[in-house]
Amino acid sequence: MEYEIDRDEPVSRAVVRAVSAVEGRDPCSLRPLAEIVDPDALDRLFEPQHDGTPRTGGRLSFVYHGQRITVDNGEYLTLRSLEDSMDRRTSDGSRR
User: Fold this and answer.
1) b/e per residue, 22-60, with b = 16+ CB within 10 A?
2) Domain count, the chain
3) When comparing pLDDT for 94 and 78, which is higher?
4) In a domain, 56, yes or no
5) 13 domain-assigned
6) Looking at the predicted structure, is the pLDDT value of residue 2 above 80?
7) Is residue 75 within 8 Å of residue 59, measured between CB atoms?
8) What is the β-pairing status of strands 59-64 and 76-81?
9) Which residues span the domain enclosing 78?
10) pLDDT reading at 9 higher than 70
11) Any idea what DSSP says for residue 65?
12) Looking at the domain assignment, is residue 50 inside a domain?
């Protein structure tokens, strides 16, 4: 799943919203993101610079709630289910 982060939406909130949408669950029922990554630090990585200019580039990936989350440039999230990734591997660990 791909998710476009709203301009004024903190990245940490976007992660929780996207995962809850994929899983069809209330965001409050998910494991706290803070148990995986510091939400404030995640937001600061992608917030505008001190002079207000947007940060360009940057990518961060981590696993949260059975999903590999990739944040690109603080503008997009990509979610890939770990189960789907495992289904694509053969018994010897190579990809099909």
Assistant:
1) ebeeeeeeeeebeeebebeebbeebeeeeeeeeeeeeee
2) 1
3) 78
4) yes
5) yes
6) yes
7) no
8) unpaired
9) 2-87
10) yes
11) T
12) yes
* CB 22, CB 67: distance < 8 Å: yes
Residues 50-77 have a mean pLDDT of 92
For the record, the structure tokens of 5 come out as 């982060």
Distance separating alpha carbons of residues 79 and 96, to the nearest angstrom: 20
- Domain presence at residue 68: yes
Question: Average pLDDT, stretch 28-35?
Answer: 96
Would you say residue 96 has pLDDT above 80? no
Three-state secondary-structure class, residue 11 = helix
- DSSP state letter for 89: B
CB-CB contact of 5 with 11 (8 Å): yes
Which residue, 69, 68, 72, 70, is CA-closest to 86? 68
Do 81 and 66 meet the contact criterion of CB atoms below 8 Å apart? yes
Per-residue confidence (pLDDT) for residue 91, from 0 to 100 = 47
